[in-house]
Amino acid sequence: DRSSIMAAVNPMMQPYSRLMIPVYEGLNGGSYVDEYPIECPPLEGDVEKAQEYLDLALEELGYTSVEELPTMNFVTWDADRQKLLCEAIIDQWKQNLGITSVQLDQYPIGTALGMYMSNDYDIFAISLSASLSLEDSLENYVTGGDYNNGIWTNDEYDALVEQVKAATDKAEKYALTQQAEQILVDGACIIPFYGL
What we know:
Layout: H1 2-9, E1 14-15, H2 32-35, H3 47-61, E2 72-77, H4 80-97, E3 102-107, H5 109-117, E4 123-124, H6 134-139, H7 155-166, H8 170-187, E5 194-195
Parallel strand pairs: 2-3, 2-4
Antiparallel strand pairs: 1-5
Helix pairs in contact: 7-8
């Protein structure tokens, strides 16, 4: 439940469940996110859907219950706001899904970012700033992109981002961006949580 977590952790932050935030201008004077919607998880959460995904994951991993899950390291840096945010997320997993095997590990920022770059974590909470353009935001997550250290790859996504970069017509660029963003959100290589 992004809405309640952000209300508790920092009411100045806007909860989001997609990559693009309303700072990007659309074609018709509004924002890109209003003019080009995508299907996203609800900001208030969906416990039934989360349980469904958890059950599928347990089955795929060969577990019969959450009690069998190994300890998962949720890594971030040693800032109070990061700690509060991560603890709130972990608490929701515990309350709503019965997951008790997530351990929060905070390190000095240099150590934490080194772990991020070397994929030395199970879950990582990172704060990213908005890119200068829609295509820059997308390009960060292509295979080998600045924020994609090789954990996630999707050939269709990578091809769409190349098309976005090559497009000269703004309407075509935005439509391709919308398709690519939907693939990114569906693939959940990054789980957007909030924006300024």
